[in-house]
């Protein structure tokens, strides 16, 4: 991990307890998702990108929208968009950045539609995560994931991109379409809210 990312994190929360919990939990999920398959020699195809990055993108979407089936749809839509824009991309790195941004934007759209629908239909609680996924988490990790799901979407997005996605402030700023200063202040507010939620 580079020093810039470590400094980014230290500025978010002086005591760091909520931050350590988020980092442990989302790092644990990243580990559970395993190492991406080795990249083939030569230029990457769309199929290669799908094999290498699909599962991590699905987990990213699950952490943002709370529903595995919806997360799968968001990721599928991101790959469809990548297919449509394949000729405009310079290299594999820009393709991965495109996919990550598409998943974040697709998740935002889902949350907006969900909020609109709830204004017309009485809200109901949906147990979104698969039983096997939660069963594999310790009670500490489960409480962190549950607290994350209660954060406002932008705050959850910044923490998930930072601690699950492993992105720097600059990368989060680019993916989320917000300034670096907003990334920093949003992360700080999110960690404070998470600390309160986990202490209650």
Automatic annotation (TrEMBL):
It comes from the Bacteria. GO terms for biological process: DNA-templated transcription initiation. Pfam families: Sigma70_r2 (PF04542), Sigma70_r4_2 (PF08281). Residues 49-115 form the RNA polymerase sigma-70 region domain. Keywords: DNA-binding, Sigma factor, Transcription, Transcription regulation. One of its GO terms (molecular function) is DNA binding. This is ECF subfamily RNA polymerase sigma-24 factor. The lineage of its organism: Bacteria, Bacillati, Actinomycetota, Actinomycetes, Pseudonocardiales.
């Amino acid at each position: 991990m580079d020093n810039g990312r470590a400094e980014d994190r230290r500025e978010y929360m002086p005591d760091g307890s909520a931050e350590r919990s988020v980092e442990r939990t989302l790092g644990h999920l990243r580990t559970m998702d395993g190492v991406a398959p080795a990249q083939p020699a030569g230029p990457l195809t769309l199929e290669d990108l799908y094999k290498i990055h699909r599962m991590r993108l699905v987990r990213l979407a699950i952490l943002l929208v709370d529903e595995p089936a919806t997360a799968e749809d968001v990721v599928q839509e991101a790959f469809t968009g990548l297919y449509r824009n394949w000729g405009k991309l310079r290299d594999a790195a820009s393709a991965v950045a495109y996919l990550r941004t598409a998943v974040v934007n697709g998740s935002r759209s889902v949350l907006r539609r969900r909020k609109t629908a709830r204004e017309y239909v009485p809200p109901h609680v949906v147990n979104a995560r698969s039983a096997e996924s939660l069963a594999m988490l310790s009670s500490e990790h489960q409480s962190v994931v549950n607290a994350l799901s209660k954060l406002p979407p932008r705050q959850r997005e910044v923490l998930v991109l930072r601690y699950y996605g492993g992105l720097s402030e600059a990368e989060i700023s680019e993916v989320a379409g917000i300034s670096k200063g907003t990334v920093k202040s949003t992360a700080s507010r999110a960690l404070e809210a998470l600390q309160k939620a986990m202490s209650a």
